[in-house]
Every structure is written in C-alpha cells, then in structure tokens.
Amino acid sequence: MKIRAHRDLETYKLAFDAAMLIFESTKKFPKEEVYSLTDQIRRSSRSVCANLAEAFRKRKYPKHFISKLSDCEAEAAETQVWLEFSVECNYIDQEKYKDLVFRYDKILGKLGNMSLQPEKWSY
Length: 123
Description:
Blueprint: H1 10-26, H2 34-57, H3 62-88, H4 94-116
C-alpha cells in the first residue's frame, strides 16, 4: 500500500488508537484531576499524532522530519510518565497500564526507526 497521507502510517494508526484508549480511560478519572493529570495525558497522547502529521508533511527536508519525529518521541515518553502516575494513583489498573505502556514502547520503536532512515520516507 502506498502511503499518501499521515493517516496511512502504521505508527500514526497505533498512536491514534492509543490516544483514544487514553481518552476513554480518563473519562473515569476524578474531577480534581481535570486540569492536571487528565488534561496532560490527553494532550501528550494526542500530540504524538499531531507531530507525526507535521513530520510527514516535512519529510522532504530530512532534518525537519527528524526534528518533528523527535517531538513525537518526547510526547510519547511524556505520555508514559502520565500513565505511571495514573496507575500509582489507582486511576487505571495494572492491566490497562501494561497494555498502554506496551503500545507506547512500540510507537517509540517505530518513531526511532523512522528517524534512523529518513530517506525511506522522503519523496
């Protein structure tokens, strides 16, 4: 399948699905977390997708492409930190935590591979 848009990237699909799982999970977070943990984890998980879309559009400029992928990696890692807080505060269970961390490890791996081979994504 030819990749014509960021939505065609497997990495984007994985990140979008993970962000939606986080969104659903955070609906159950306590109200006192609305302006802190809930907003932060939703923002960072969605930012992975947004930065990946930007990276895809900058792919003909390898340094810009890699820079945006680095932003994606940072947001994915931040999301993992918020997941740690979520499980420690008992807002999500261990099973959900392990699943989401696994998903973000996979996303981080794919982002790293993309960064190492920017020419593969150029047109």
